[in-house]
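I hope you will forgive my troubling you with a question about protein structure. The full record is reproduced below for your convenience:

——
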Amino acid sequence: MRSAAFLLFAAPWLLLSRSFTAANTPPSFPRPWLARARSGGLTPPFSFPPSGIRAGDTSLASGGAPRSPPEGIIAASSSSKSSTSSAEGEADETNEIARKLKNRNHPNLSRKFTHAGFGIFFACLNQFLPHEKFVRGMGILTSSTLLMELLRYRRGFRWMNQALHFFLGGALRKHEMEGKFTGSFYYFAGVAASAYLFPQTAGTLGIIQLALADPSASYFGRRTRHIYWSRIENGLGGIGRNKGILGFLGGALFCFPFNYRVLKIAKWGAAGIPGGEVAIVSASLLLGLAGAFADLAVPTPALTMPKKVLGIPVPPFHVDDNFVVPICAGWACTKIFRTFGWDDEMQLAKHIIF
């Protein structure tokens, strides 16, 4: 009885509760978004919205296409790619030039003739121009060449390598297009230093030894490199490393006739040549020996500065015979003149050799 009474009492409340639940439950509609979400076409409502919507970009929320990256980013990316490709192209051109050049083991006669020609040219200029103007001009030329050497491996300046190869061609060496300075900087610096440090005649004779002793000693050294006893290798404390005694003697003898001619027709004055013919011959030979010995003393490969000094990057300077030879020969000339009692201010012939 109690159970029946409870059912009769609770039945209306159960029916009322079910009706309320049914009225407040949303109808069950088909859910096509679920199928599209599974196929990648629509983001389901329970996942995180795309970053564009979270950042305020409503194009995705409205069903539009994704917004493209800002134009500035695209331009910067394109500019970076173009600059990188440009730098790589310049480096490839420089490497291509280096592949065409010969290394220092090749005789390279064109380089030797160019070397001698420039030396004679500068020696004549030192005689023709006023001393101050010549020194100033060589200082400007040396500074400009140093600036070129510091810039020509940097991005945007590698066209300088093309210009160097156009004007000098095979006179360049392979290592001079592989990160090293060309010999021209040391050549100009040596000429400028010789003209500045010594009287005009001594400076001119020092430049002449640079023009003749350096290339001739190199040539004879290459020709006699198979003669074992002549090679210095690593002896003498590294001085003259990989050079030869026969090359040194060949360079000195090659300079002798030119030196003799220059001193023979110099302006000695009415008193004549102090010491006579013997003094002329001795001085000519000693000058050649001085220039050739300076070339011999510079080791091969050259002594190069470290890449960093106290943590600071430095240019690849090295000890170069183009700088050493004219200074040593000019200094030796002043001592030779003093030994034979010749005046340091003695003038050479108007055209040096005639």
In short: Strands lie at 308-309, 312-313.
